[in-house]
Amino acid sequence: MSQPDSEAVSRREFLGSTAATAAALAAPARGAEAVAEPQRRPVAIASANGLRATARAIELVRQGADPLDAAIAGVNIIEADPNDLTVGYGGLPNEDGVVELDAAVMHGPTHRAGAVAALQGVKHPSRVAKLVMERTDHLLLVGEGAQRFAIAHGFPIENLLTERARKIWLRWKETRSDIDDWLPPPESPEDAELRRYLRERPTGTIHLSVLDLHGDLAACTTTSGLAFKIPGRVGDSPIIGAGLYVDNDVGAAGSTGRGEANLANCSCAVIVELMARGMSPTEACLEMLRRVAKRTREARLLDKQGRPKFNLVFYAIRKDGQYGAASMWRGRRYAVHDGTRNQLKDCAFLFER
Questions:
Q1: Which of 10, 62, 97, 105 has the most CB atoms within 10 Å of its CB?
Q2: Is this structure's pTM higher than 0.85?
Q3: Which helix (H) or strand (E) holds 281?
């Protein structure tokens, strides 16, 4: 019987490891002449709205930036984009018409993390999450406390509800029930766009994981959360182990999609553990989706074939530079810069309609 890939060692690998050991023994001791660290090809992987973010992250790590600083700078582009209805400024609000933001960061080399949730009025929650990591003995701040912390560190409080997001929210409020006193206005040319966002409840986020030139990892996930949510709702994005997870010896993973399904399974921590056991990033993402699908039992969340109605997407990088993404349903894409090319690629998937 042949050995599993994880146990089989080729003659070339053996000779290569032997040569590396000999070179290490011949190298000067610490405190003597510095030995240059080998450079690798960097990788940045993100959700489909992150093509500009992956480009920025790779640009920065090539300049020597820390992978977490590169990840945050990448997602900041999307947080500031009023045309992205799922992240930061311009994100769709809660049911009261207030934009509430969640974000988390995790730094592989130090295994530290920080997060904020239900944060109002701050355009870049990812930056606040990093300050929680660096300037507090906490990991997660929420609501008014998170906002006060941001103000203490000089963040301005802004109105994040754009006119476009306000109109979508207002149309949702006016058409959600026939037994209230809200009435929609007469039909207008923009109604087609408004209805498009109301046919299926908008969800979205940006996740970005980065592998730098030296094999160090970091990740950031930031979102405005589920559109029209109950005020105070916190999704998976700011929860370490769910919205993202990094083990600098193994890899990084992140998620977008139905946060409640991810939260109930701590999916990203499991994906990283599956990679530690030898799975490829894509295989690990698909295995986690199988587990989520199997554990989803509420009838309201299942179609006639017993499959989850919702979507969930996972993204992963392994320390050796392999990457992959998988979606519950066919048709999703992801952004990746592999150090050579920045592109959108199709996600692997479990189900197709």
A1: 105
A2: yes
A3: helix 281-295
